Amino acid sequence: MSAPNPFVTGVRCRCPQCGQGALFQSYLKFRDTCLVCGADFKAADAGDGPAVFVILIVGAIVAPLLIILQFGLELPGWLALTITMVAAVVLCLALLPPFKAVLFAFQWKHKAREATHADIE
Description:
This protein is an all-alpha fold. The chain has one domain (6-113). It contains four helices and no strands.
């Protein structure tokens, strides 16, 4: 059996080994093990990468949105800013789990791990 595509399993927030089991036990907390194949996720850590990607993507979306709302539609500044901030928060909350799962799935595929002193010697 070939390994599942890490991008697809990440977007679906599924186990990077079997592609079936749920990866998260809560909003952003990884499970200790896959409920389907038993893969061990105790060392799972995507670091700050997902947040960085999400912030860059959301910023690229909401900055033009603010300009369009305020100058294109001529909404009052407070209303344009409120709509933009709500959109930014919703987008960040929606995108963070799949981005975290995708980065973890690629780490899993490439067997990436934290370097230790023994690796340097």
